[in-house]
């Protein structure tokens, strides 16, 4: 038996009973002969509560102190979990992100992992201990400040540790039984996927699927670390995410033509109106956005009006970055030369994902037919080899997801999907 990294989300350790239930599962893995490293998130809604508290004290808290505050949640849960494991007769040691050797850049609130040097973790394992690591956090390489990896960063912590420790698998425990063909809170008949490729999972994660963080899947693909997504509330087999299909029993799981339908209502749309249609204008716009450290998603440029030589450029970005983007563009209005800006945060994105679509004619037509039959109007379109995404009104998202899911035969004939903890994470 080799080394296993397990990650438990906030809903799995939301209270004392949840922590004790998780401890029993961890001890079971230890009894089966595995060396076990556990990454744990903050309990329940602790992180949200800390954020609210910070905003009450300071409307714009300093990044360094904000990170110092937020990392307290994971330290609480890791210590309690270590106590619960010791009560079951097994030795456990808890470590903060910095003690575990998670080294990051110096960007507060959304740091990226640069390296993992898990010397203390290896020592704990060699001594027969279970190692408990606080997720979502690390230490900056230059200033040695505490940093956080952004929401969902515990997934990335787990995969990074799995890669550094050469683990057999990284098990992500959540409050659903695996990865589904759609969000089970929106599509009650969503099917659980037995196996999905890194590529399809990356597209689903980037398109709004909340079970796995995009950076976590990218890290796993880079180091070829299989991920097993399971529920901490049941003993059911979950979803395997890996580079190659796996065997379950006497059969090999094959990739479906369509893996699933994802949606995202956390984005907004910015339209730059009246941009001179000449070389370099788009570069100036997106350099302005990049300099403000804002990530954008979809981009559409309209055909310029022959009479004016002006065009409109629209792009989507996280709602949380909307005000910053508008301010950055307004400051550079004279350099860009646009007429005005429009901002719309009542949009949603629906994405159809599947590696099989590139070799199956008609997928695009069926996708747009399903949206048309549901009376859903499309505002933006973006595609890749294995994904079609559209932007529509936020109010139409749920109906659009259900219509597309049914149109591609993804509805389950059996039991409805269960969300044990109510959050999908």
TrEMBL record:
Residues 270-346, 352-425 form the ACT domain. Pathway: Amino-acid biosynthesis; L-methionine biosynthesis via de novo pathway; L-homoserine from L-aspartate: step 1/3; Amino-acid biosynthesis; L-lysine biosynthesis via DAP pathway; (S)-tetrahydrodipicolinate from L-aspartate: step 1/4; Amino-acid biosynthesis; L-threonine biosynthesis; L-threonine from L-aspartate: step 1/5. It catalyses: L-aspartate + ATP = 4-phospho-L-aspartate + ADP. One of its GO terms (cellular component) is cytosol. ATP binds at residues 7-10, 174-175, 185, 210-211. It comes from the Bacteria. It is an enzyme of class 2 (transferase). Pfam families: AA_kinase, ACT_9. The keyword ATP-binding applies. Catalyzes the phosphorylation of the beta-carboxyl group of aspartic acid with ATP to yield 4-phospho-L-aspartate, which is involved in the branched biosynthetic pathway leading to the biosynthesis of amino acids lysine, threonine, isoleucine and methionine. Belongs to the aspartokinase family. Substrate binds at residues 47, 74. GO terms for molecular function: aspartate kinase activity; ATP binding. It comes from Streptomyces pseudovenezuelae. This is Aspartokinase.
């Amino acid at each position: 038996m080799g080394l296993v990294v397990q990650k438990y989300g906030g809903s799995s350790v939301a209270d004392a009973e949840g922590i004790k239930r998780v401890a029993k599962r961890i001890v079971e893995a230890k009894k089966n002969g595995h060396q076990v490293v556990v990454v744990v998130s903050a309990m329940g809604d602790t992180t949200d509560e800390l954020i609210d508290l910070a905003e009450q004290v300071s409307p714009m808290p300093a990044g360094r102190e904000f990170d110092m505050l937020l990392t307290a949640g994971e330290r609480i849960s890791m210590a309690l979990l270590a106590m619960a494991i010791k009560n079951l007769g097994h030795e456990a040691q808890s470590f903060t992100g910095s003690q575990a050797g998670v080294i990051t850049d110096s960007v507060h609130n959304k740091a990226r992992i640069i390296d993992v040097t898990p010397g203390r973790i290896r020592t704990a394992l060699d001594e027969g201990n279970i190692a408990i690591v606080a997720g979502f956090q690390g230490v900056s390489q230059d200033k040695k400040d505490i940093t956080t990896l952004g929401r969902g960063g515990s997934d990335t912590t787990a995969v990074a540790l799995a890669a550094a420790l050469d683990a057999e698998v990284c098990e992500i425990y959540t409050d659903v039984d695996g990865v589904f063909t759609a969000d089970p809170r929106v599509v009650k008949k969503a099917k659980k996927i037995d196996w999905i490729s890194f590529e399809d999972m990356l597209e689903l994660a980037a398109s709004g699927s909340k079970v796995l963080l995009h950076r976590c899947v990218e890290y796993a693909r880079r180091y070829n670390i299989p991920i097993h997504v399971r529920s901490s509330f049941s003993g059911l087999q979950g979803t395997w995410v890996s580079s190659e299909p796996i065997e379950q029993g006497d059969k090999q799981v094959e990739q479906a033509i369509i893996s699933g339908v994802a949606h995202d209502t956390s984005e907004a749309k910015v339209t730059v109106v009246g941009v001179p249609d000449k070389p370099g204008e788009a570069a100036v716009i997106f350099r302005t956005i990049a300099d403000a450290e804002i990530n954008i998603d979809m981009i559409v440029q309209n055909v310029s009006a022959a009479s004016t030589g002006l065009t409109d450029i629209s792009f989507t970005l996280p709602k949380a970055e909307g005000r910053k983007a508008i301010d950055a563009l307004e400051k550079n209005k004279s350099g860009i030369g646009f007429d005005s800006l429009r901002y719309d945060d009542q949009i949603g994105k629906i994405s159809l994902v599947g590696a099989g679509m590139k070799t199956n004619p008609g997928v695009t037509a069926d996708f747009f037919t399903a949206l048309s039959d549901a009376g859903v109007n499309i505002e933006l379109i973006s595609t890749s080899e294995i994904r079609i995404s559209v932007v529509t009104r936020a109010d139409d998202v749920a109906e659009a997801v259900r219509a597309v899911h049914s149109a591609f035969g993804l509805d389950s004939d059996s039991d409805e999907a269960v969300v044990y903890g109510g959050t999908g994470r």
